[in-house]
């Protein structure tokens, strides 16, 4: 490339910048973008008030289906705040182009934006990956505002979803910490069914009545509440498994992150009370396990189908008859 071509290119770029990016154009662009941002903030304030009202209605209702529907509305509104802000900025750019460059073609602005995005691709690529990941998760409805989630691959990162955008997710942990996570870093989501954990204790005792009393006394000594032991241990099954030996199954519910109340505290408490009694009755246990009803039904179905055997089909052979009638069928050995 010779020097004349380089100079010609510089002259073209200089004319473009003088025409479209002069002082007046830059000032008008700053004013329009400022108005767009202020309008976006005003709309965000209004929408957040609506979100708060919907959240309050979800807290009041006792119908789980209504709660899930209101949570979807809440998530959609929170997500729309970011979309509206971006849309206002883009509309402001388009309006600025029409007002300051009435003779220019809007397609030129699109072309200039494409060139700018190409030049800034190195710095914008992480944001674009976040947006793509966030869009996919929102379309597939992985989670919503108000859900208690555990984020993979960060095993210790769990809490309630407070805010969702196409770029990031904000959760609040049980200890009050606020965690922001880029959507591209979210490889998986674990959601607590109905926002609680259901845990069962398996207990083998030599005296059924005293075993029942151990479960009752444990409930009296465990802290209860919406953020602790949501539902006390309830005996759901009592089975005789041998001479003077009973199998007791007790099920309780805790808030997510408080599983230790049953898995550790209740188990240690029952063992301690039994050891302190004059006649211990625990033969085995207590053993803690998760007890989600839907999960147990699905696993039971899977195991039942896996244990099935292929059925041998019955074979028949044709037997000729001496009287000339059509042959009859006889089961093959």
Explain the overall architecture:
The protein is an alpha+beta fold. The chain has three domains: 117 residues, no CATH class; 46 residues, SH3 type barrels (Roll); 111 residues, BMC (bacterial microcompartment) domain (Alpha-Beta Plaits). Helices cover 51% and strands 23% of the residues. It has eight helices and eleven strands. The strands form three sheets. Strands 4-3-2-1-5 form a five-stranded antiparallel beta sheet. A four-stranded antiparallel beta sheet has the order 7-8-6-9, covered by helices on one side. Helix 2 packs antiparallel against helix 3 and helix 6 packs across helix 7. The longest helix is centred in the first third of the chain and has 38 residues. It is elongated. The mean pLDDT is 76.
């Amino acid at each position: 490339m010779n020097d004349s071509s380089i100079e010609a290119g510089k002259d073209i770029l200089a004319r473009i910048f003088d025409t479209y990016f002069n002082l007046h154009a830059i000032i008008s662009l700053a004013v329009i973008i400022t108005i767009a941002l202020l309008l976006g903030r005003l709309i965000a304030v209004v929408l957040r008030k609506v979100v708060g009202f919907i959240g309050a209605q979800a807290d009041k209702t006792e119908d789980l289906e209504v709660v899930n529907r209101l949570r979807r509305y809440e998530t959609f509104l929170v997500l729309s705040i970011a979309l509206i802000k971006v849309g206002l900025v883009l509309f402001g750019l388009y309006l600025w182009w029409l007002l300051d460059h009435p003779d220019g073609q809007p397609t030129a602005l699109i072309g200039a934006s494409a060139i700018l995005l190409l030049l800034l691709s190195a710095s914008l690529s992480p944001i674009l990956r976040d947006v793509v990941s966030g869009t996919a998760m929102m379309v597939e409805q992985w989670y919503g505002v108000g859900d208690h989630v555990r984020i993979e691959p960060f095993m210790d990162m769990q809490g309630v979803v407070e805010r969702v955008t196409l770029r990031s997710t904000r959760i609040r942990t049980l200890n009050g910490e606020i965690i922001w996570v880029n959507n591209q870093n979210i490889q998986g989501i674990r959601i607590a069914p109905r926002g609680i954990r259901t845990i069962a204790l398996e207990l083998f005792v030599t005296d059924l009545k005293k075993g029942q009393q151990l479960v009752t006394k444990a409930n009296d000594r465990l802290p209860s509440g919406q953020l602790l032991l949501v539902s006390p241990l309830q005996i759901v099954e009592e089975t005789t498994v041998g001479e003077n030996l009973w199998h007791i199954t007790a099920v309780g519910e805790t808030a997510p992150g408080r599983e230790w109340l049953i898995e550790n505290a209740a188990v240690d408490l029952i063992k301690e009370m039994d050891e302190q009694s004059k006649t211990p009755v625990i033969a085995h246990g207590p053993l803690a396990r998760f007890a989600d009803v839907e999960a147990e039904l699905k696993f039971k179905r899977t195991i039942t189908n896996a244990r099935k055997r292929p059925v041998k089909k019955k074979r028949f052979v044709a037997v000729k008859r001496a009287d000339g009638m059509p042959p009859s069928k006889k089961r093959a050995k």
